[in-house]
Amino acid sequence: MSYKLGIDVGGTFTDAVLINNNVVHNKGKIPTDKDNLLETIVNAMDLLDISKQKIEQITISTTLVTNAILQNRLPEVNLLLFPGSGMKLSSLPWPVNYEVLEGELDFRGREVNPPNQQEWKQLVERLKSSLNPQIAISGKFSHRNNIYEEQLASYLQKELPKADIALGSQLGQTNFYRRSLTTYLNLASQVQFLEFASQLKSAIDTRKCTAPIRVLKADGGVLPLSKIRPVESIYSGPAASVLGALAQSSSEDSYVVVDIGGTTTDIGLVLSGSPLISAQGAKIGSFLTNVRSLAVRSVPVGGDSVVLMENNKLKLANYRLGPAFCIGGYNPTPTDALRYLNLTDYGSHARAEESLASLLPESKRQPQDIRELAEEVVRIMVDRIGQAIEELQQEWQDEPAYKVWEVLHHHEDLEFYIQLSGGGASGIANALADRMNARTVLTDFSEVSNAIGAAMAKPTFSWTLNLDTYLGRYRIEETGEQGKWEGSKKPHREVEQFLKDLAYRQAETMGIEGSSLQKDQFDYFPLVESYNTVGQIIRGGMHVPPGVSGRIVK
Amino acid sequence: MKKTGIVFFPAFDWSLGESHPEREERLLYTQEQIFEEGIIDLPQVKQYSPGVANLFDVMLTQAVFPTPHRHKLDAHLIAVGSSMILSKALMNKEISNGFAMVRPPGHHSGATVWGNRGFCTLNNEAILVNNLRSQYGIKKVAIIDTDVHHGDGTQDVFYHDPNVLCISIHQDGRTLFPGTGFTDEQGGPNAWKSTVNIPLLPGVGDEGFLYALENWILPRVSEFKPDIIINSAGQDNHFTDPLASMNCTARGYGKITDMIKPNLAVLEGGYSIQGALPYINMAIFLALAGEDYSGVIEPHKPTRSEIGGETFRTFLAGLKQQHDNLRPNWTLRQEPYLPAGEWVYLEKSVFYDTDWFKENRREYIRKCDHCGGTVLMITQNLMTFEKAALVRIPFQACDTCEQAGYDLAEHFKKAEKTLLLQNQLRNQVHLWSQGEEVSLFES
């Protein structure tokens, strides 16, 4: 008998589950200690007494990097850019400082202007003073040709042996701006993440557990602790919500995932059993990144959001001040409204009434008045969630399409139901069903749904190929691999086999089964010069989509 | 904030032939450039996904004969529909301007359509403009065509329409397709001077273009007082274009855009797909978004000799004078089926260079002091010898012209195998084939 352990560190609570053969064997919930996530995780493990079972894998969804970025607790990184010509850098908001270097490539990675070695010497002079300089190098079109980044990196590494250097081309998706910022964040969060990883590993070792540790990513996939890029672990919470719902529903269903937390409600979309992935990378704080993420919305409203009365107008605050009044807190919350209306049954009804009444003038505290107030609170909450659902569905409808075929077969009409989880989910089910004109379904293990999602998550990865047979160069966006193409100038099956072999080989090292790889559409662009076809640009991909390893049985 | 919309539809699975200039690869490098630069991440930019136009919108503006179902229109309907996504966003005040970077182009496609010419089957801008007039009450539109080729299709659609000002500045027709666009083409009898053609000698660059804009085009536009300005933003005036011989740069195009200040720019031609398009598309877009485009610099330098300075200014002054001095000389014609009034007669021959055949067309325009005048076109495809008639009751038609349109339709329903009634006044379209009405919505 072997067990899967899933832990989701949330803003307010940390959930943990032990799953054996798709059955929830044990579960638990503890408050999150924001200042000590490692201890929170270890406490959650001890709560489930993991040393008593044979654990086959541990999956962690953590806010470590998210918090470090949002709370501005990152070390300074020297960001060096080769922007070449084009749009002014100042047209886009850069949340960090950067330094501009000479050297320009064009859109196929051909050299236009060489770098200036003199600049590099001066750079070394300035960086010499720092003990362990953190250096991110990012060039426009470096995802097509990493020559300048590589040259500068090897020069700097020689001159500054203690420097940590990261290259933009290693995160090789198109978009110089996002690639630069993502490279920056990844390097900046590396030290904290590695420290966390090694402490976690030793904490688990001391509990005589040898199970591999996996980390949940924003795209709903997992990777081994040693293989993940720290920045990819941001926003794993909403991804865990979606996966939790996935593990507790039928495999071909289409639904909206609504996970109501203490202060935020996470919303995701599942289309015929596949979570919707955002067409753009994630935005975190003031950083736009190219981190692949599920298309999700986090609405700042939850069961513990404080209800306020300002100038006779009812408001739901974006924050929480402890638990709901009806379960011993100090402020009226949506949870109190739901309790008063008997839509839920936890907490004291009398206290719920007391908290709501306190918002009304003394002359207006008749049962009818309190009832109307409670209904209004629920209506506001449901309306905010409803709006976010509509936005997300619109995002799905608005996905860009670049081919005639894609436009003509844009989206089939799907019928959505709403999969609800989290505290108070049962209370708003009917109101939300009315607002969205859709059926609602309550998740069975509502309170630990995210931890289930983490435990059951499968690995994801993708290999996007860009091959220019005329220049004889190929690039794999996600790994940053760039190499010489020695095959045919107009290949067909050959190139698909090439990518397949490469992906299978690398999948194995990441613990991904070859059978889960899926081939994407390959696009062949004939390269024409003076009416002659001289080569091809080929774009194609292999990917492992997000998913779960099984469905939870009650 | 002043929002700029973009719809990018490169039609990566559509071409007119493997090595044809209008092929899959055409916007590939533009995509690489604009997405790598991160223009979609500019705070004032909103990207829209493509749309598909319906045949009603098409047929209200263009008569696609013998029926639209006989043509392969998918890619063209998406180019039109995508452009219209932006015009709708403009009307809904979501954006203040926008750029439809779409393939295939449309400005050689005219009032009657039997096939593809100059890579165009449907006219993106013309259909969009009439949609704005029929759905949003827009009255006056200026279309400025800065493609190197004469925008003959757009001119043809609006030739009799006094409320649409069509200005085309291009390399002259003696040296370039489609061979038209001289100063004598200035509009039909009810729309004289609402068409302006500025044919330039090969070799003109940024300086000449900007001079012509400042001294001729912009004053004419401001005199016209349009509600909306559309730019047919062809990019083949670039010094690297393989089909034409002009000398403009990407930054020149940025400046052109800055001066025209179009509400919408719609991509037309431009076939230097590596040397020009990635840069011009950037410059035009940045200019629309109010960003600095002075850093958009092509890797190559111009090598063609440029016509500018005093030589150009003298040339343009002569051209303008010729244009201003021209007076029309209309031929009136009587036919038994023509309702009461004076009818101007015109003849036209159109060559479909993609499919290699000719169309012959006879036009009758009812002279009218109150409206654009009802138009009758009788057209024949000289390859298949199929004939068809188009009757157009214009926007804001007067009662007499409206009635004339119905009378003509009644006659040609029986007299011709195919008849299209474009009732722009009532926003109705009817297509008859052999006396039976054809639905535009069957697939």
Structure characteristics:
heterodimer; A: 554 residues; alpha/beta; 6-stranded mixed β-sheet; 13 helices; 28 strands; 31% helix; B: 443 residues; Arginase, Chain A; 2 domains; 7-stranded mixed β-sheet; 22% strand
SSE order and pairing:
The complex is a heterodimer of chains A (554) and B (443).
Chain A (H helix, E strand, L loop, with lengths): L2 E7 L3 E8 L2 E9 L5 H11 L7 E7 L2 H7 L7 E5 L16 E2 L3 E2 L5 E3 L3 H11 L6 E6 L7 H13 L4 E4 L8 H31 L6 E4 L5 E3 L11 H11 L8 E6 L4 E7 L2 E2 L7 E2 L2 E2 L7 E4 L5 E6 L2 E8 L13 H7 L8 H9 L9 H31 L6 H5 L8 E6 L2 H12 L3 E3 L6 H8 L4 E8 L4 E4 L5 E3 L8 H17 L8 E2 L3 E7 L2 E13 L10
Parallel strand pairs in A: 1-4, 4-11, 5-6, 5-9, 9-10, 13-21, 21-22
Antiparallel strand pairs in A: 1-2, 2-3, 7-8, 11-12, 13-14, 14-15, 14-18, 16-17, 19-20, 23-24, 23-28, 24-25, 26-28, 27-28
Helix pairs in contact in A: 2-5, 6-12, 7-8, 7-9, 9-11
Chain B lengths: L3 E6 L18 H10 L7 E4 L6 H7 L1 E2 L9 H18 L5 E6 L9 E2 L10 H13 L4 E5 L6 H6 L6 E8 L23 E6 L5 H19 L3 E6 L16 H11 L3 E4 L9 H12 L20 H17 L17 E10 L4 E10 L8 E7 L5 E7 L5 H17 L2 E6 L4 E6 L2 E3 L5
Parallel strand pairs in B: 1-2, 1-4, 3-5, 4-10, 6-7, 6-9, 7-8, 9-10, 14-15
Antiparallel strand pairs in B: 11-12, 12-13, 13-14, 15-16, 16-17
Helix pairs in contact in B: 1-8, 2-4, 3-4, 6-7, 6-9, 7-8
The main pleated sheet of chain B reads as: 8 strands, parallel
Task: Work out the count of structural domains of chain B.
Answer: 2
Tally of extended strands of chain B? 17
The CATH topology assignment of the largest domain in chain B is Arginase, Chain A
Describe the structure in your own words.
The complex is a heterodimer of chains A (554) and B (443). By secondary structure, chain A is an alpha/beta fold. Among the domains of chain A are: 78-189; 305-448, no CATH class; 461-544, no CATH class. Chain A has 13 helices and 28 strands. In chain A, strand 23 and strand 24 (473-476) form a beta hairpin. The radius of gyration of chain A is 26 Å and the shape is globular. The mean pLDDT of chain A is 93. Chain B has 2 domains: 4-13 and 22-325, Histone deacetylase domain (Arginase, Chain A, 3-Layer(aba) Sandwich); 343-438, no CATH class. Chain B has helices at residues 28-37, 55-61, 74-91, 124-136, 152-157, 206-224, 250-260, 277-288, 309-325, 399-415; strands spanning 4-9, 45-48, 63-64, 97-102, 112-113, 141-145, 164-171, 195-200, 228-233, 264-267, 343-352, 357-366, 375-381, 387-393, 418-423, 428-433, 436-438. In chain B, the strands form 3 sheets. Chain B has an 8-stranded parallel beta sheet, with helices on both faces. A 7-stranded mixed beta sheet of chain B has the order 11-12-13-14-15-16-17, with helices on both faces. A two-stranded parallel ribbon of chain B has the order 3-5. Chain A binds chain B through residues 85-88, 90-93, 106-108, 112, 140-141, 143-144, 174-178, 280, 288, 397-405, 407-408, 523, 525-528, 531-533, 537, and chain B through 8-14, 18-19, 23-25, 28-29, 31-33, 35-43, 47-50, 52, 74-75, 78, 274, 278, 282, 286, 291-297, 299.
